[in-house]
Amino acid sequence: MTDLVREAGTRGAPASSLRDRERAALAGSGHLQVAIRRSTDNMDGRWRGLRESLPGAEELREAARSLRSAAITRLPELLGQLADNVEAAGGRVFFAADADEATGYITELAQRRGATRAVKAKSMVTEEIQLNARLAEVGVTAVETDLGEWAQQLDGEPPAHILGPALHKTQADWVRVLRPEGYEGGEDPDAMCAFARRTLRPRFLDADLGITGVNLAVASTGTLVMVTNEGNGRLTSGAPPVHVAVMGMERVVADWPEVDLLLALLGRAGSGVNFPTYVNCLTGPRRESELDGPEELHLVIVDNGRSKILGSPSQEALNCIRCGACLNACPVFRQIGGHAYGDVYSGPIGAVIVPLLSDGNHELSHASSLCGACWEACPVKIPLHELLLEGRAQHAGSERALWRAWARAWSSPRAFALTGAPAGLRPPQALVPPPFREWAKGRTLPRREGSTFRTRWARGEVLD
């Protein structure tokens, strides 16, 4: 499965098909499924429990949906307001049309500063634009400092989950990954965390650049809000002399009341806690009177296909707050894992937005049972099952042509008669036209008992 894993996180259509990646994920002894189920059961179960105990949970979800939809509708206005306020606070803002512009700006900044070392907090959008690879091209070594992201980086894998990048790994996997870095302990999580702390702490102090994502950007004040489950976000944004914050352009919110509601739901839906462990609110770089913080703050706002979604039937996909709840609830994700999706975004939300952001991966909309569990789990009530159907409809031209061809064939009595299976065959796979044989796999096709109606008619066995 190694080659398929390495494909994940690339933009455009992967070399292999979704079917191939699914088969690779399902092969073996069920190790992957057991590891994923253990983590997703815990997160999904805690979120379900909190929804049941939270007064007015459905009203809060509906309010969050309304606020996110309103913000996306006002996106150009809010982004302009955000940029003005970030710059007023001493930061610099760059609007990147695509991944090349975003990584180009950051690599030029690194070269201008003479940077050779960078530390990174967990950021899906930097995975999306493949920032680490671009930094390596100009001689900058970027180290992931989120514990799960670091394990994935050491193992040569992209993240497998929006919230838990390495949730598919067992404790034995962790030992295998950390051993080459000097870890000599066993499978005790505390010992491994202590080792990671000792190893990563000097990286923060030696880094020339600190690169983070942005969970929410407050347009009214120019404040960047980052949510983490570890303290690495604060060290990444505060210790190095230059802080580069990279955000998808949809992550902007209007004001603090919206932040308050979304953070309350993000913590509950993502980690099953009443409030996130670490919430960092940054407004500009270090001021003259302050003792710590970066000398420079650069905010890179990334489009990379998002503007194409505005005004489309799938616009509500931009409401996503990247909590990962839909992945935890999805029966497909729980079986095949994140890498089988072939992109950095996986699960139901990935199956929706990846085909919208890029020109390939249209088959991802079929990686769903359409059971609606994702919609029930989503804290901002994105109708993901409906958007998946919309994705199927948008890219069903070839399928429509095949079904029309079949319909024309069956409109001919002779062609229809030729497709009648001899009695007793199950399943009659050989008689299914080639384009549909893949569809027929895994399905029990009907078995006819006795002679066909036409045969019986010719024998005179059919009475008026």
Automatic annotation (TrEMBL):
Keywords, sorted A to Z: 4Fe-4S, Electron transport, Iron, Iron-sulfur, Metal-binding, Repeat, Transport
Region (Disordered), start-end ranges: 1-20
4Fe-4S ferredoxin-type domain segment(s): 311-341
Superkingdom of origin: Bacteria
Name of this chain's protein: Lactate utilization protein
Organism of provenance: Solirubrobacter deserti
